[in-house]
Amino acid sequence: MNPITQVLVVEDNEDDVFFMRRALAGVATKAATQYVSDGQAALAYLRGAAPFDDRRQFPNPHLVFLDLKLPFVNGLEVLATIRHDPRLRNVRVVILTSSSEERDYRQAEQLGIEAYLVKPPTREMLQPFFASSGTTASANA
Amino acid sequence: MIDSPSAPTHDHDVVLRRMARDLVALSTLPAIWLSPELGTSVQNLAEVLCTAVRARLLYVRLRSAAGAVCEGSAAHVMRRLPALTERLRQHVLQHINVNADQFPDSIPGPDGEERWSVVASPVAFAGQIRGVILACTPGRDDREYTRLLLHAGAAQAAILLQRDESELRRFAQASSAREQEARTEKIMQLMPTAICACDAHGCVTFFNRRLADLLGAAPEIGEAWSAFSSRFRIRLASGSTVAADNTPLMVALRERRSFREQELEITRPDGQRFYGSANIEPMVDRAGDVSGVIMVLQDITGTKRAMRHSEFLARLTQEAALLTEEAMIATTVTEQVAHELGVERCYFAELDRRSGSARVRYEWRRGDDLPAATGDHKLAELGLAPSVGEKAGTTVVNDTDAGTVVPLRAYVAAPYIQNDATTALFVVAQSTTRQWSHEDIAVLEGVVARVWPLVERARASAALQERTRSLEQLLTRTRAAEEASRRLASLVESSDDAIIGVTLGGTITSWNGGAERMFGYYPDEIIGQPVTQLLPADRFDEEPAILHRISRGEHIDHYETVRRRKNGTLIDISLSVSPIKDGDGRIIAASKIARDVTARRRAEARQHALYEMLASVNRAEALPQIYEVALDAILRCQGADRASILLYDDDNVMRFVAWRGLSDDYRRAVEGHSPWNPTEPNPRPVCLPDVAAAHLDPALRCVIEKEGIGAVAFIPLTYENRLIGKFMLYHDAPHPFADDEIDLVKAIASQVAFAIERRKGAQALEVLINERTASLREAIAQMEEFSYSVSHDLRSPVRAMRGYAEALLQDYGVRLDDDGRELLNRIQRNGLRMDRLIQDLLTYSRLTRREIKLEPVSLDKLVPEVLQQYAEFSPEHADFDLKTPLPDVLAHEPSLTQVLSNLLSNAVKFVRPGTRPRVRIRAETKLDHVRLWIEDNGIGIKPEYQHRLFGMFERIHPEGKYEGTGIGLAIVRKAMERMNGHAGVESDGVSGSRFWIQLSAAKP
Questions:
Q1: Where are the beta strands (DSSP E) in B454-545?
Q2: Residue B356: φ, ψ to 5°
Q3: How distant is the alpha carbon of residue B300 from its chain centre?
Q4: Residue B53 above 50 pLDDT?
Q5: Spatial CA neighbour of B362 closest among B442, B454, B437
Q6: Chain A residues with beta carbon closer than 8 angstroms to that of B803
Q7: CA distance to partner chain B, nearest, from residue A3 (Å)
Q8: How far is CA B981 from the centre of its chain?
Q9: Residue B557: which of B576, B534, B536 has the closest Cα?
Q10: Of B164, B204, B528, B572, whose Cβ has the fewest other Cβ atoms within 10 Å?
Q11: What is the pTM of this model?
Q12: Rounded to a whole number, what is the distance in Å from the CA of B851 to chain A's nearest CA?
């Protein structure tokens, strides 16, 4: 698997953004992380639409962390749109949510996800996704 | 085959065939000699003897010259099963000491069968008893026969021993061998079977006397068999003739092949023919080359003939039994028997003992040129003794020239005996001499015994049928006559039909009561009047046409027409007219029968309307439809001019719901009026046949008359004895409401009331259900939304607080002192506790609304799974004693998992500090319930607290001491309730707790 150097986090809660930053700082030292705060922005980013049309500034992410409870378009809708868009179909998505409801998990699983993580995010939780690129990071942690 | 004690052939036949089979089996014995091995030979001997004597088990034991014991055994079983044979052998040996001199006569049968008879024969050789042959059979009585055959077997065994000895001692004296050979030869000479041996070149080396007898010629020793056999004509069973150098014996020699029971038809030089069964065995010397051949030939002529006759008899009886007609049976039989025996004629003779004569019937003759014997004859004329009627014997005459009614030179008359007397004879006869064989006689006796009862049965059955038929005819005739007179009487006397006599000129001559009722005229008013008086004006020409047809002798049946009553009203009638003749057969008048069909027609119409209404009412989907259908039906059935339906409304006032032909003013004016009290238990219809004459409130009468109503009827609509409304019928003119009219309307009313109530009930129920479903759905949706929000929004700030405290501790911990760090730790702990509380609450609420489907769950699988899921249950932390196997229960697996993990974590949590948790898990099954026990060594629960244990937020231990939200057991209880189970605890508050849950057992 290619090392993950580009990460997109879709999260509207500032606190959770804070914890995500802390956790990622420990394990994804080599990865550049972009943050968007709602579902529409996430889809725009992935499609390279304005204001994310500059791919040098907003490169294609290797991995997307997606919250489920989002304003405008919720996380499951974002996920469904990704899976039905031929250009985005192969984007790797990790759900990061506060919901441990079974129906949420089952729906996400059916649409196709990399993993389903329940908040709060910790370094241990994120470690496996950056295992190949983050060896130095975990050594530093 | 038919086994019948009345057939004289039977015993003879059986013995003959059995002898043949036994001897043929024994005749294979020479083959035994050819086996070089004593052991093999002993086994062969056992098998051959077993077949010959048909023993269940045959056992041979020989002591060889070297002192070795050789055993052979064979069992006569349906299929040769080695295991079964061995089992029988063991059984026999268990009860018989084979080394003893004396043997028991019988032993217990295996598997509790009847006792087995034992026949033994010692094997003597060289003056010593050297062995024994035992034949064991379930209770048989022919021991002597068996013993005879066993002796023959013992002689064979002796020869085996002798050969064994000579093998052993190669230099044995020739004389002793020759002596043995001579003995063998003697035995073979004595054998009742023909035996012959040839050398490798096909030259005769030995034959016994029986062979010469059988073939009617003896070969020379050294003569070529092919040369000898060329003197005979030999045919195979297939019918093909065999050349002399191709006889089975030559083939056996050439191709080294054995023949078993080869059937041959052999014609001797003297022309006599016989049937033989040959067993042929090539002999092989020690080098394995063919050294000669042995043939054993058995005469089976008698057997074959007996078999053929038996089969014929069986077939004939079967065929006759299928026929039902006496003559058919008898003629079939005479014809077939005549052919079978090759006689000139064959017939039955029935004896009349009083007159001493016989009636010959069913005669078959070879040709029509032969004179017939059929008819009544004196016994002597048929060549029969007068005593033939008393004696039970068969008359057999081979050659006579006594004067008989037809030329009979040789004949047999087999009697049919009933009650010690001969009632019929079965006779075959011919005009030439004949030596009747006993088989011929047996066939005839067999035929008469079997067939004559069939003839008699057919005869009796035919007579019975004839009698039944004539009785039935008589009965039918009697009935018809009775019926006719009864009909006539009823027609005239009491019939509702009008019976009228009319002259050909059209004058009425007779007038019965029916006519009086139908037309309204008394007899003295109408008799003598022209019949046209009854005709409506437009039908005057009908009557002359009718009378014209009658005068021609025709009948008129059920002619539907219309006639006029005295009061001028018309009447639908069905008219039948017949001519009346005088003594000379001349037509002088007409008899008319008229039936009033008005009522029938109206009834038909009503029935039709009623059924249509019922079907429509049941199909109607809304109340207005039902009303309309009901009004239609009422108007059509009752013939009312107008009608309406009124029902009580919610204010208990009767309101019009449907009507025909009523003005708005009228309805407004009369609405609310009712002849019945609303609570009247059994309201009855009220009829006002004439409004003008009725006692009515003047105001109401005014309204009714204004509407132009002359008659009115109120029909209550009731449902379950409750008045719900009414039907109204209105006639413009006064109308006498007949009972049947009202009954019909009542019938419609009850159906309509039922349909209305049912429809109303269904509608109300539907509305209620829809309302409740909607509000329930809403409640559930709200609840779900709430839970979802709780899980996200409520936990989110708690989690953030914990996160920040942790971040603070991580990033700035070093700058704080111990107290500061402890405060942060407390913030974290409380955050964690808050989070758990929320999660448990969610679990609890999810349990209450989740759909629970009970399915068989294997505790054996589930409990270990739960134990593996949590670190706190690992062997490092606690000991679990799982009493397997655990049964299957009916449960919802996710909920049961929740219950088990809650109970198990309680079990390991509540222990005294420093104690290692020990938990025992076991199950009890009681009737159809399973109780799973989880027993710990914890601090226990005092009985006074136990009732609070399963409540929400109940904690009975101080908070600081043991972690927990107080919801865990509430979850357990809720989950168990949802799964139709129970939960409980037993504890003395000192030595641990014993929690249990109870569920239905899963049916296997």
A1: 498-503, 508-511
A2: 65, 30
A3: 48
A4: yes
A5: B454
A6: 15, 18-19, 120
A7: 28
A8: 44
A9: B576
A10: B528
A11: 0.35
A12: 13
Q: From its phi and psi, is residue A82 left (phi > 0), alpha (psi between -120 and 50) or beta?
A: alpha
Q: Is B102 exposed, middle or buried (0-12, 13-18, 19+ CB in 10 A)?
A: exposed
Phi/psi at B849 (5° precision): -110, -10
Query: Residues B682-707: pLDDT tens digits?
Result: 888 888 888 888 888 888 888 888 88
Question: CA B561, CA B572: separation in Å to the nearest integer?
Answer: 6
B803 vs A15, A69, A97: nearest CB: A15
- B82 CB-contact burial (10 Å; exposed 0-12 / middle 13-18 / buried 19+): exposed
pLDDT at B310 over 60: yes
With CB atoms and an 8 Å threshold, state whether B791 touches A99: yes
Interaxial angle between packed helices B9-26 and B143-168, expressed in degrees from 0 to 180 and rounded to the nearest 10: 10
Instruction: Give the model confidence (pLDDT) of B747-782 as tens digits.
Output: 788 878 888 887 777 777 778 888 888 887 887 777
B807 close to A (CB below 8 A): yes
- Interface membership of A101 toward B (CB under 8 Å): yes
Antiparallel, parallel or unpaired: β B879-882 and B722-731:
unpaired
Closest C-alpha to B800, from A65, A98, A101, A123: A98
Tell me the chain A residues in contact with residue B791 when contact means C-beta distances shorter than 8 Å: 98-101
Is B783 within 8 Å of chain A by CB? no
Compute CA distances B161 → A12, B30, B124, B183, B191, whole Å. 111, 14, 9, 14, 21
Helices (H) and strands (E) in chain A, counts: 6, 5
Neighbour-count burial of B484, counting CB atoms closer than 10 A to its CB (0-12 exposed, 13-18 middle, 19+ buried): exposed
**B791, B796, B804 member nearest A13 (Cβ):** B796
Give the B window 619-658 contacts with A, CB below 8 Å: none
Mutate to test the interface with B, among A19, A76, A104 (most CBs of B within 10 A): A19
Q: Which residues in chain A have Cβ-Cβ distances shorter than 8 Å to B792?
A: 69, 97-99
**ipTM for the complex?**
0.77
Q: For residue B202, what are the CA distances in angstroms to B30, B249, B266, B294, B985?
A: 18, 8, 20, 10, 103
Q: For residues B850 and A73, what is the distance between their CA atoms, to the nearest angstrom? A: 27
pLDDT at residue B238 above 50?
yes
DSSP-assigned beta bridge partners for residue B561: B573
Using CB atoms, which residue from B791, B804, B807 is nearest to A98? B791
Nearest to A69 among B792, B803, B804 (CB): B792
The residue whose two tokens read 């020990």 is: B918
DSSP B215-247: HTS-PPTT-BHHHHHTTSEEEETTS-EE-GGGS
